Every structure is written in C-alpha cells, then in structure tokens.
Amino acid sequence: MQGGNHMLLEEPVRLASVLAPAKPKVFPSLTKIVGTLGPNSHSVEVIEECLTAGMSVARFDFSWKDATYHQETLDNLRKAAQNVKKLCPIMLDTVGPEIQVHNSTGGAIELIGGNHVTITPDLSKAPSADILPIKFGDLAKVVKKGDTLFIGQYLFTGSETTSLWLEVTETSGAEVICYVKNTATLSGPIFTLHVSQVHISMPTLSEYDKQVISTWGLQNSVDIISLSHTRSSEDVRELRAFLKSHDLQDTQIYAKVENAEGLEHFDEILQEADGIIISRGDLGIDLPPERVFMSQKTGIHKCNMAGKSVIITRVVDSMIDNLRPTRAEATDVANAVLDGTDGILLGAETLRGQYPVDAVRTVGRICAEAETVYNQSLHFKKVARHVGEPMAHEESVASSAVRSAMKVKAAAIVVFTFSGRAARCSILHKIST
C-alpha cells in the first residue's frame, strides 16, 4: 500500500519515497507536544514561539520552584496563548515520593569515582564529597549491599557528568555508605535520589502535593495532573477522590509510570487513569537499558487498545545544549510515533535547555513525518478486533465514522461533543479530529 510519496510500513521502504520532497500538510503534527515551562521558557515571547512551533500542553513541575514562580509563568502563558490565538491546557506535575538531598550551602559538590560517600538522614550535617544529607530516615532499612542509587539534579542518563551513580557497600545505623562509580559534579539547591527497584515507604500523593493542588491547582482550574511515581491503582483512586472533594472532578489524571513497581501494576493503573506517561527518565535507571524499549512498546500498545492517551518522555536530551538532536534521538521519536504514542513530553529540553523553541519545532517535524507513514488502516483493524462486538453505541458511531473517513481519504473528522468522549473514541482509531 502506498500513500502519496510515502510507503505504509507493511511494504519495504523505497528510496524514492524518502527522497521525494515533503508535501505541505493540512495539519501540523497530530502527536501532542508537552512543554515544561521554566527558566528558559518563562517569558511571554518565548512561550509564544513555543506555542507557534507546536507546543500543545504546558507542564508545570512542582518538584522545584514555588507556586509564586509558577503563577508568574502561567500568567505569561495565558498572555502568550491569547496573543497567538491558541488554546493550551495546563498540566500540574506532582512531586510524589521523591527523596531529596538538600544542598544547604548551594555550592557545587565534586565527587570522584572510586571514593566513598555516606548518605545520612542527619540534616544538620553540611553536604560535601564525603557526606550527603537526605530528607528520608528509613533508607538504611530498605537498601542492602549491592543496591544501586542515583543522585542528581536531573538524574542519570549515561552521559551526564552532573549525576552520580552509587553502589551500596554497607549500612551503619541510619546511614548508608556507598561506592562512587563515576566522577560527577552536583550543583543546585536540591538533588534527587533514586533507589533502583526498591519500594520507598512514602505516599505517592504527598502532603505537599495536596497543598499545591488544593491551592494553585484549584485557583487555576488545571486540566491535567501528572501523578508522579504511580505504583498502584489505589494511588489513582486516592487522587481522584481528593480532586472530587476539591471541586476538580473534571481534571484528568495521567499516571506517570517510572519504576518497576508501576510496570508490575500497569494494567490496573491504566484502568483507573485517564492517560499514562511512560517516564523514561526514572524508568531508564530502574530497569536494565536493554529492557526499556520493551516496557515502552508494551505500554503504548496497551494504552492504544484501551483507548487511553499515552505520552513518553526523555526523547531529545542532547537538545538541552545542542541545536539539533542526535540521529538516534530523531529515530527514537519517530519510532515512538509509529508505536502509537499520542504525545511527547519535553522536560529539561524546554525547562532549562538553550533551545526550547527549536526542541519543540524539531520534535514536531519528526512526529509529523512519522505520521505520514503510520498505517492507519492496520491500527484500525487491531482496535476493532480488540474491542470486539457488540460495541457500545458511542464506540460503534466512532468506528463507523473512522471507517468512512478512511474510505474517502478524509483529512479530518469534525466531532460535536459536550464531554469529549465521542472525540476520544474517534482518536482511539488514530484519525485526526
């Protein structure tokens, strides 16, 4: 099968289809781009450029900065959206059970590979290359010799020198002594500590998260809450009840699956959540590297079949400091679209990256190009087989509309909807609405 100058993926790709000039598109990328707003994307002017470049959702990460700062950014977003005449939903990202190292001195801390460092719950001790205080008293109770810990402002990617890779050698009382596996310089007021494949006895929805949601979230009627470190369906139900009690029942919940525990309970989490964020930042250090791709592909497929939105993260890390992504990153983004992802989340790329607008624009172009060879017909058949018969009324109407659109090669389906359910049923079949 062939669509225009491009081959659908059931056929081998012909060089001619690759070299043919791209045709103007009726729509920009249908894959949604979530941009995290921060220091390098705070101003009205930069946000305007991000929106024009293709940013679909604005994410506010409350693991850093306070509500005052985020309110200033949101006010700028509203001005920018009005100026460019675009709607932009708001996503509030919770902190969750995050273990933090507080750098009270604020200075850079250099740790040398081959040395040892002690992790302590004693916050009275000043952080240094020899000791790092954390806000969690039970670490020594849950880790054992040989366990892996990661510490960094943006966690470990395998190439950064700003994050630390540690191996537990022993515990002494409440303290954990670790072997430093790589040389790194920690900088900033707060670092995150991640313990690989170990359950941390901290609530998924923290008291700080509840305070932020019930004040900033309620005040701004946030559209989506990204529930960090979701570990079970009960986490989603707890947040749902909390939102309902604060008159935020229309706010959608996107569960962030970012550790082995979340993967283990993926099916039950998917059933309760409105959407899933496959958070490859933490997931990529909780799992062996060779298993990350399978968790992504399996998760995306399950979301597609369930008709729930799915977003992936950490796609163009190199664009934090560079104008272009690597070839591997560009291919990674395209393959995620071909797997069926509905959205791409840009974190550090737009938050602190030097080229936030270019990151949005480049990812959008890659997504749009991948969409031209996405096999809509094959996906539709898979979904129809999965749903089976008899279908619900809304599902049947949406399915018929999509089938008709495919036969006449319609560019879009216009859906008149009050709740959005009919539109989501149509999107389930991967036709633009």
From TrEMBL:
Keywords: ATP-binding, Glycolysis, Kinase, Magnesium, Metal-binding, Nucleotide-binding, Pyruvate, Transferase. Pfam families: PK. Residues 31-360 form the Pyruvate kinase barrel domain. It catalyses: pyruvate + ATP = phosphoenolpyruvate + ADP + H(+). The keyword Chaperone does not apply. Its cofactor is K(+). Its EC number is 2.7.1.40. One of its GO terms (molecular function) is magnesium ion binding. InterPro entries: Pyr_Knase, Pyrv/PenolPyrv_kinase-like_dom, Pyrv_kinase-like_dom_sf, Pyrv_Knase-like_insert_dom_sf, Pyrv_Knase_brl, Pyrv_Knase_C_sf, Pyrv_Knase_insert_dom_sf. Pathway: Carbohydrate degradation; glycolysis; pyruvate from D-glyceraldehyde 3-phosphate: step 5/5. Belongs to the pyruvate kinase family. This is Pyruvate kinase. It comes from Aegilops tauschii subsp. strangulata (Goatgrass).
